[in-house]
Amino acid sequence: MNQVGVETKTEMVTVFIMGQAYQVPAGLTILKALEYAGFRLTRGVGCRGGFCGACATVYRLPGDYRLYADLACQTTVKDGMYLALLPSTPAERKRYDLKRVKPSGETLLALYPELARCVACNTCTKACPQKLEVMDAVQAALRGDIAKVAELTFDCLSCGLCTLRCPAEIPHYHVWQLARRLYGAYLAPKAEHLRRRVAEMEAGKFRAELDRLMGLSKEELKELYKAREIEPE
Amino acid sequence: MNRTPAHHPSPITHYPSRLLYFPGCALKDQARGYEEATLAALAALGYEVRELPRWNCCGTVYALAQDDLMRHVGPLRNLIRAQEQGAEELLTLCAMCYHTLSRTARFVQNPENLRRLNAFMDEEEDYRGSVRVLHLVQLLAGLAERLPRAVKVDLAGLRAGAYYGCTLLRPRDVAVDHPERPEVMEAVLAALGAEPVCFPERVECCGAYLTVTEPEAVRLRAGAILLSAAQNGAEVLVTACPLCHFNLRERRPLGAPKLPVVYLGEVLAWALGVKPVPEALAPRVGVRG
């Protein structure tokens, strides 16, 4: 941080945004660098915390043939970075009634037959900013292992980078969503304690206590709050 | 009948008791019974069989185009995974997986093919070309002398027709036995105490993946195979291929003999007493000696 009266020099780096060179301070995230360069982002930006997947970005670095993919809010700029924001990946989400589909590989293949076009090139895995084993999830889908697909894609943000890079044109993030829904609806262990507690509530077990609280004065509620039982740390 | 395979391209006599195993998609889905029976039987024979971690689809259909390198990436990645595990052999049960993986293993014996594929798969360690793909029938043929002593259930009288299909026998450079006159499956069935039955159609194609686009063509093939087997006295057909298994059961034309179609690993498991002989076949076992 700059102190008053002390001159500090900010180190600048050059980044190429959609083909145009910009000088931006080193250490900025790609997202902040875009804004520093004057872009006003209305799409391709969301939570700024690495959770929403809206700011998918591809870039290359000087002297490196690889095409990198990351979230703009989670990646700092590097000198010579050549980048493009990809705010949206077009992919069709199939319609289905979750109550009428079975948790099987056939369901996934019937709705998304392009899954079978996977050649295990692993491009999807390389593109994932979340470092998920995306290709392994495609393979689990092909062998009907819904639970494995749900587990492998639990942290998917649906940024769409895998889907954009896939030579087999698989709409990964829609398939993952379907698999996780199937897992939740049919395969995940049911929370028996939750069912019991809901039944207790519906049977009125807590009704008398709630009614008593509703009848208390503000002062009485304050005293009760102060005297509440607190779990030891 | 106790023949040893006469035309085996490279005789196999000894395998380590620990084996790395590539299941393939069908064995985790439609052909679960084949895997379950075989793994139980191999455990009974003293084998420590470990599933290859993080395997992907074998590719299913081997790419014949010389420049279609992308189709070799999937099978080769499995060989790299096996190499990472320090394995010299990779065991397969599915005939199609055996076929695709072993053909790719041969494809990358060409240094230029290997170089190009390694360059493409820059996120993996380079493949060094040393993993040998092995099929269950080869493993069992190598045990032909040991098997009779391990047999617990007498299968005498079970007239079993070995149906090879294509992928275990063609092309010659990956064949588990002579492509026209194979004996290896019959030898294994005999070692297990069953009565092998040879029939002309045992090396002919079942129609394979035409089952998707031309099911009528497959029905013709399935009918010819079932008839040929039945006319030569087979009471059960034994295969190692989930696609042959599907076609012979699900594309059976009306009026064709209703032979049960089972997997080689299932017969192994019956003989070793780790899986019960199905009720439909039980009366045929042990009655004619």
In short:
The complex is a heterodimer of chains A (233) and B (289). Chain A is α+β, with helices and mostly antiparallel strands. Chain A has ten helices and five strands; from the N terminus they run ββαβββααααααααα.
Return Rg of chain B in Å: 19 Å
How many structural units, i.e. domains of chain A?
Answer: 3
Care to count the β-strands of chain B? 8
Query: What is the second-level CATH architecture of the largest domain in chain A?
Result: Orthogonal Bundle
Succession of helices and strands of chain A: EEHEEEHHHHHHHHH
Cross-sheet strand order for the largest sheet of chain A: 2-1-5-3-4
CATH level-3 fold name of the largest domain in chain A: Fumarate Reductase Iron-sulfur Protein, Chain B, domain 2
What is the CATH-assigned architecture of the largest domain in chain B? 3-Layer(aba) Sandwich
Approximately what portion of the residues of chain A adopt beta-strand conformation? 5-15%
Point out poorly predicted stretches of chain B: 1-11
Helix segment tally of chain B: 11
End-to-end separation of chain B in angstroms reads 14 Å
* Rg over C-alpha atoms of chain A, rounded to the nearest angstrom: 25 Å
Low-confidence sequence ranges of chain A: none
Class inferred from helices and paired strands of chain B: alpha/beta
Mean pLDDT of chain B: 92
Whole-number tally of structural domains of chain B: 2
Distance N to C terminus of chain A? 37 Å
Shape of chain A: flat
CATH class of the largest domain in chain A: Mainly Alpha
